[in-house]
Specification:
This protein is α/β, with parallel strands linked by helices and about 260 residues long. It has two domains: about 5-110 and about 215-255, D-Maltodextrin-Binding Protein, domain 2, CATH 3.40.190.10; about 110-210, D-Maltodextrin-Binding Protein, domain 2 (3-Layer(aba) Sandwich). About 40% of the residues lie in helices and about 25% in strands. It contains ten helices and ten strands. The chain has helices at about 5-25, 50-65, 75-85, 95-100, 145-150, 165-170, 180-190, 195-200, 225-240, 245-255, and strands spanning about 30-35, 65-70, 90-95, 100-105, 110-120, 135-140, 155-160, 175-180, 200-205, 210-220. Strands 3, 4, 5, 6, 7, 8, 9 and 10 form an eight-stranded mixed sheet that branches. Helix 1 runs antiparallel to helix 10 (about 245-255) and helix 2 packs across helix 9 (about 225-240). The two termini are about 20 Å apart.
Length: about 260
């Protein structure tokens, strides 16, 4: 086993043990099932701790005496259930459309949205309208920020069902660029693509499309929605102030 793999495994074990210790021994007054989709490395079913953001959310609710359990579903189904059922979810950016119909928690983390492009392309732009000749990929159900979303009808937009599909399209030159969180994109490249394919792609982090807070959400029609938002915010403030959020994020960065 290579040294870097040994180090990575040690880091993963440390992170999981930290999470387990913080999570253990809590007395719960109630339980809450939270539907979410896959969004590695923030939310992922294959990891024992379910990802960086999942840890923060579960620990925040634990501080408020609520045992949160994740239920993994396709994101589109999660969104439908937020609209039609009494569902709480997280991993959602705030935009004007959602703000009309959903309650939003305090910001869990700050996420960037950037363009992924092929390295040989020297794409320059000052405003989004400069990109109207480009084939721009976006992922179904995602927002790239109000400014970009508002001008999409004037651009050549190609919608895919996942970031992974958009990466494949970019590698195959079926699109010129696409909007993505660079942490998510880098994780997908490392785990789903070959070294040769990884070396073809770069993320334009020097010129972000937007910088967006990621939140816990529920419909404004949810009978208990405001209650859970308040409970989450109270728990989040506790683990933020005692340094738990910072430690989780620092440890997670060492894994990626």
């Amino acid at each position: 086993m290579k040294i870097k793999n040994v180090f990575s495994n040690i880091c993963k074990t440390t992170l999981f043990l930290t999470f387990s210790i913080l999570y253990a021994g809590t007395v719960y007054g109630e339980e809450l099932v939270i539907p979410v989709g896959e969004w590695p490395p923030y939310i992922e079913s294959e990891r024992a701790d379910n990802g960086v953001m999942s840890q923060i959310v579960i620990l925040s609710f634990a501080e408020a005496g609520i045992k949160a359990r994740l239920k993994f579903e396709p994101w589109k189904r999660v969104e439908v259930n937020i609209e039609k059922k009494d569902s709480i979810s997280f991993g959602w950016y705030l935009n004007n459309e959602r703000k009309k119909k959903w309650f939003f928690s305090d910001e869990i983390i700050k996420g960037l949205v950037v363009f992924a492009v092929r390295k040989e392309r020297n794409i320059k732009w000052k405003s989004f309208i400069d990109l109207k000749q480009m084939r721009i990929g976006v992922t179904r159900g995602y927002t790239s920020g109000d400014e970009f979303d508002s001008i999409m009808s004037e651009l050549r937009i190609d919608i895919a069902n996942s970031d992974e599909i958009n990466l494949k399209k970019l590698i195959m030159k079926r699109i010129d660029m696409f909007t993505v969180d660079p942490v998510v994109g880098a994780k997908l490249l490392r785990t789903r693509f070959s070294k040769d394919q990884r070396e073809q792609i770069k993320f334009m982090t020097e010129q972000p499309v937007s910088s967006l807070g990621v939140h816990l959400v529920c419909s404004k029609n949810h009978k208990m929605g405001n209650y859970y938002i308040v409970k989450f915010n109270q728990g989040y403030q506790k683990i933020y102030q005692n340094g738990t959020v910072r430690r989780i994020l620092q440890q997670a960065m060492s894994l990626h």
